[in-house]
Amino acid sequence: MTVFEQVREAIDMRTVAEGYGLHIDRAGMCLCPFHTEKTPSAKIYPKNLYCFGCGTSADIISFTQRMFNLEKPIDAVKKLNEDFGLHIVVGEAPTTAEVSEYRKRIEARRAYEQWEKQAWKTLHDYLWLMRE
Ligand SMILES: [Zn+2]
Fold first, then answer.
1. Which CATH number is 3-83 given?
2. How much distance in Å is there from the Cα of 57 to the middle of ligand 1?
3. Assessment of whether the complete model's pTM goes beyond 0.70
4. Which runs of consecutive H residues, i.e. helices, occur in the chain?
């Protein structure tokens, strides 16, 4: 799962919108932060915001990016992660070398666990043999 997916899983649109100061009424409408208006025409859905006034459609990441004029979507991910204490590890994208290194480590661990299990079994059997 990418950090983008993790963030989208971790918080919903309403939490983000309210967290950043939007007032959402009972109908799930709020004043659109992307155009000037007096009556709410932006609708908050679980995963995104849609404005019937200016046609803006944004999920939590593009919403945050636009609200704070952030350069890249990853900057919005970092901001959401910090502001809402999501504890998502946001790093740079791993290189192919890092990915294969990671896979190797997992395989090595599996092999070790297999060996350990086998070793215990041998030891166990041996103990029983000794007792007899
Ligand atoms: Zn709008």
1. 3.90.580.10
2. 9
3. no
4. 3-10, 13-19, 60-67, 73-83, 96-131
